[in-house]
Amino acid sequence: MKDTADTQNFRLWLKDRCGSLVSFDEPMSRHTSFKVGGPADIFVRPDSRDLAVTILMRAKESGVPVFMAGDGTNLVIHDEGIRGLVMILSNVPPDIAFEEFPDGNVLVTAHAGVRTKTLCRIAIERGYDGMNFALGIPGTLGGNIAMNAGTHLGAMEQVVHSIRILSGNGTLKNLDRKDLNFHYRRLHYPTLTDTTPLPVIFEASFLLRKGDKKTIGDEARAIVSARTKKQPVTLPNAGCIFKNPEGKDPAGKLIDMAGLKGRVQGGAMISEKHGNFIVNTGNARAEDILYLIELAKKEVHERFCVELETEVKIVGL
Hints:
Layout: H1 5-18, E1 22-27, E2 39-44, H2 49-61, E3 66-68, E4 75-77, E5 82-87, E6 97-100, E7 105-111, H3 116-126, E8 128-129, H4 141-146, E9 150-151, E10 154-155, E11 160-166, E12 172-176, E13 181-183, E14 186-188, E15 200-210, H5 213-230, H6 251-257, E16 264-265, E17 268-270, E18 278-280, H7 286-304, E19 313-315
Parallel strand pairs: 2-5, 3-5, 4-19
Antiparallel strand pairs: 1-2, 6-7, 7-15, 8-15, 9-10, 11-12, 11-15, 13-14, 16-17, 17-18
């Protein structure tokens, strides 16, 4: 981040306004599921939506770039770190609301910093059907909506009813499902013209249905059990590294057929359980993970003429 009078003033204002909620030169290895990543120039954890909006608009006025890190999942952050401001919203109180309707529908509203696993757990406890597909998806609701996160059982687009965003011009807007254009692992905003920088999702509503609590719970336990057997849940990772190529074998199968399961680089390894996962075996650096990503791309392309596209975000430098 360029050290100008505006950025210096922004740092001073942020320290005065946020106190212990802000830190400088903060190692992102402390805040990512991969446990890797160099320092962020500025790292802030606002404890309210209003404070988050104020910080974002002040950063924009000061010319400070902003990166929304969700819960630090689905990220590979370079060892050199991130310039500018990194913000997470998981410090904002959950504040989840429920509205049940006579037809059996349930509208659940939560702020974007709520972890997806929290909403899944609450839905199971209350007997609300619709969220079990997301069991095992790490991260926050906002981040998972922005990337249309999903599993073979479904994706966020199936349950999102509406979202509340901070658009590029600083306006808070409500967008209904019809205003959102979901694709495989991404979300577009066709009704917005002010999408620079990308809108920040602050709140979302999900349309679920009342169901049988025991049936939903049994299904959830079966899903979690299957995931535990197939995925490396005990080692730091960022979920699936690659998108599944359309009309081809899944990315994990292609990587397996390329003979790459168990391949090690430094402290990183292509999982022996699932080829589409890279794990931190204890002392990985981002450069180790990035090496294995490029190796998988190269080998799969050479053997099967398939271009693998990363699902994780690679950020920093």
